[in-house]
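Researcher: Please predict.
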Amino acid sequence: MSTVLTGVAAAPGIAIAKAFLHEEPSFDLHDTKVENVEDELQRFDEALAVSKQELSAIKDETEKKLGPDKAEIFAAHLLVLSDPELVDAVKDQIRTEQFNAAYALNQVATMFINMFENMDNEYMKERASDIYDVKTRVLSHLFGYEATSLATITEETIVVAHDLTPSDTAQMNPEFIKGFATNIGGRTSHSAIMSRSLEIPAVVGTKDITAQIENGMMMIVDGMDGTVILNPTEAEISKYEEKRSEYLKEKEIWQKLVSERTLTADGTHVELAANIGTTKDLEGVIKNGAEGIGLFRTEFLYMGRDQLPSEEEQFEAYKTVLEKMDGKPVVIRTLDIGGDKELPYLDLPEEMNPFLGLRAIRLCLEMPDIFRVQLRALLRASSYGNLKVMFPMIATLEELRQAKALLAEEKDKLIEEGISVSDSIEVGIMVEIPSTAVAADRFVKEVDFFSIGTNDLIQYTLAADRMNERISYLYQPYHPAILRLIKNVIEVAHKGGKWVGMCGEMAGDEVAIPILLGLGLDEFSMSATSILPARSQILNLSKEELGTWVEQLFALDTSEEIEEQVRKHLL
């Protein structure tokens, strides 16, 4: 009899093969004291050196296979191995406590892992896995274990593990490894990101698959629905073989749309843009045929470092994106730090509720010197493409006016310095606070566009922390209140002759797309891999018909009823 497990759909596709249980080495860690401290320090240094050699080789191989952006993961691991905060802390424990190197490393690394895992930011939480990966590698050498490699697998398998490190995933050969499933993990984990690049179907976060699987057991991984089937019946195998065949045909159709404009069935053009965090994301944006950048999250230029990025660093990043997009619109959001994103080097005071505290535009207006550097860099880059500047978390007109005034001041200064600045920069705001959505008619007169940030808009409207799993049921993008706010923003903007985009996860959601199209959304910005499926879906939808149909949704009472109507009639 088959067993069905559910988890997080991390990478699309269907895999049907025998299981390969990938188990981590077991380390016997005790606080045993060493007699010769210098010998133990040397042993630790040697384990670090071998680990660095291995990671350098993996980095080079990954760069050849997947490109420099994916290889950056291992550059980060190499930095961890050289980080004095970690390395010196381990050596201090060896010197002062006479702990053996393995125990000292585990103590220090676990402290850092716990620190990252307790952060609210999903991105920062996932960085804990980087330290875990590095720790495991060094411990293996301290214990004299041979490093296990998935690269040696030469028959079709599905890898099952508690978790997969980036090193594990980078060494996978898609010819033989057809999919993977793990106990833990999320869509933003490195292994999930790399599985999407390798196009290996993956389901993560199944909780206990390793306890239910045996080596060689037949299994199915459905990376679209987040389902794993152990010991499938012949009927289930046949069903999923058919689903896999349909998915591969769909992918071929999507690929033909890469160079096409996004047109509805009745000939209306809507813009499909991509969300990016760094210049390294541009390859996927271009590969998937994005018609622009709807959100460049500039905070990633500020994170993972020990000081603020200079004006020159920022200018080069913005210039690169604008040039690569070759005249296509690029919406760059100004610094959005605070809430779940922290910059340790700013040394900001702790807040009882950081999501409602000094963050985003509030922080920038509080620290205008930092903000002015970014504005100068943006303005200098504006001559190299089609720049649109967007301010995040605007709650009042006063904030918007202050931000615009600073932008105007820096523009005047640059012109006085003889530096070229575009005279056609559009300025807009993120609509992510309910009061801003309600009062859109006040803001529309002072902006060129709105971009609806649904991730925060939903959590603020429904008073539901999107990071809190216990109330995740309240994170409802189709909730009648959310749809009413979106409808109001779009109607007000169009009445004022302005365009409206959306850069939250909702923009790439197959259920939401017909609703948003019917409401008149002009630009949908999403992860690059969602663009071609969304374009294919929109080709078969009539905007005019949806405009009439969507009105009936506002008579419904719940998110579930709305989703049911969309699935029943349009999916």
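Model: The chain has three domains: 3-22+148-253, 37-142, 256-570.
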